[in-house]
Amino acid sequence: MSNAPVPNQPLVTHLFTADPSAHVFEGKIYIYPSHDLDHDGPDNDNGDQYAMEDYHVLSIDSFDAAVVDHGEVLHLKDVRWASKQLWAPDAAYKNNMYYLFFPARDHEGIFRIGVATSTTPAGTFTPEPDYIAGSFSIDPAVFVDEDDKSYIYFGGLWGGQLEKWQNGVFEPGAEGPNAGEAALGPRVALLSEDMLSFQGELQEISILDENGSPILAGDEDRRYFEGPWVHKYNGWYYLSYSTGTTHKLVYAVSRNPMGPYTFKGTILTPVIGWTTHHSIVQFEDKWYLFYHDSSLSEGVNHKRCVKFTELHYNDDGTIQIIDPYAMES
Ligand code: FUB
Fold first, then answer.
1. Were 223 and a residue from 183, 187, 238, 252 both cysteine, which residue would form a disulfide, CB within 3.0 to 4.6 Å?
2. Which helix (H) or strand (E) holds 249?
3. 40-72 pLDDT tens trace
4. In angstroms, what CA-CA distances link 319 with 19, 29, 280, 311?
5. Does domain 16-311 bear CATH number 2.115.10.20?
6. How many Å lie between the centroid of ligand 1 and the Cα of residue 226?
């Protein structure tokens, strides 16, 4: 357990944590992060360095209280269908149940998305015997709308294997589109009432520029890479995500949760470390960005730490750009 959380400082220092998905459940902020491991194994564009094996849940009662680590809530050894790499998870509440959605490689080395359930937000979570039928790639993010419809967003390039699914089947040698072609978008599906399966067809989300043209694969400052998150503000759906190679968090907006979305701008400038990944949550009357960097390990990409900062909207609904190091001297 650590002391009260400080903006733009590691939320906890006794674990390496990343990919924070924050939600308000039962009046507290619960954070569902990846749990990075300290190891000297391979480090490459395939993401082998992200060799995580379990999840912890963190919570914050208030910003004056200490962060609570609820301990290990799910371990790889208990997930029958998974072989390795428990990457960025998310959680959702529905039907008086908490659902933890998580990606991992199956026994063929293909990333899939699983679900585990708990009656409490702090777990522990019991995994379903199989991954979600038809699921693939990484970084699930679940948005439960005001009408109680639930949407799952997912997908990530490179190690996240999204390029390999362009024709609806896994093609190990497939590469992404050429620079002048439309970029790949994250996938979205409605979730079934019991939250355990996709309902209807998976769709690819279009992200358009200000003229209504698709963002191109070569537009690395704006194209989708990984880490989708959807939140709603003033009736607009905000899809935010990482641009990967250009290390930004950016966002696009739509009137429809399934898009198309129109690109708007940057939320977070590059952080220490290669990856950037986030969530956005309202707690009481303020909005917060949860994100990570590698400052706790002085820049080791796979030893990251979760942080938070306040997020501000302009009157026109755009989000003010955050430079997390601007206040440091
Ligand atoms: O933590 C492993 C992977 O790194 C996540 O799934 C990506 O979003 C990136 O943060």
1. 183
2. strand 249-254
3. 888 898 999 999 999 999 999 999 999 999 999
4. 20, 21, 11, 7
5. yes
6. 8
